[in-house]
Amino acid sequence: MILVNGQETSSIHVTDRGFQYGDGCFSTLEVRSGAPLFWSRHRSRLERDCSRLHIPFECADALDAEVIAVAASGGDGVLKVILTRGVGGRGYRWPDVLQPSRVISFHLRPDYPASWASSGVVLRLCQTRLGINPSLAGIKHMNRLEQVLARNEWPDAEVQEGLLLDTLGWVVEGTMSNLFLVRSGRLETPRLDRCGVAGVMRELIMELATSLGMAVREVRCRLPHVSQSDEIFLTNSLIGVWPVRRLENQQWQPGPITLGLANAVEQAKNQESLQSSLSRGTLGSNEGNPCIA
Prior knowledge:
6-stranded antiparallel β-sheet; 29% helix; 9-stranded mixed β-sheet
């Protein structure tokens, strides 16, 4: 099921600025038994990103209702929510009157082996570098060419993810994930004030670690700092937590802090699934909503 501005269709206007310029933002979330996990967190992130991009965050009730409807249509899978500045003429200047577009689509869940979560994954260093731009840092905007180029640097199925540095050589994130390091019992993650995506799962991991009494800090680090870590793991909303077992020639075993946080994330997902199932249908209705075309 795909909804574009409330209508079931797979088409969007060719002059939409999301298509023309990547002028928008998006979020991807897991669906379990028809329940969109951590939707409130993803919704808040979308609202923050839209605010920073000066895209009106309108029709919130309609967005909630559409997310619930599309998620319920597919059972277990992946939901992608795209918000663009809407249709506009040729040229970079946006129209005086904005009518943002929203696209919500359901997809099959990636068939990741369970061993990646239990035994760890192989991480490689990418040659593609992330450009430094504080005005876009943290935003999950629709311009993802750096990640596209980086992900296609390797065809090797033995490598599951790539590590991205910025143009100054600082460690930032994975091509599709955020990075965490464990050092002397403390949790660290790269700062995202100059580039990178502030993931919803990254936010949750930091909250869970703090609630468990663990010191958490954002750092600016280079590769030797990563290599000297006791544990390394990756996160996003679909994978949850993946321990890293190898980066280039450095190897690790999944550690107790990584596995403990992975378990805490799974518990949070189960609780979220239960709560979402119980409250499904209470976030709004399309009936009489003027934002639905």
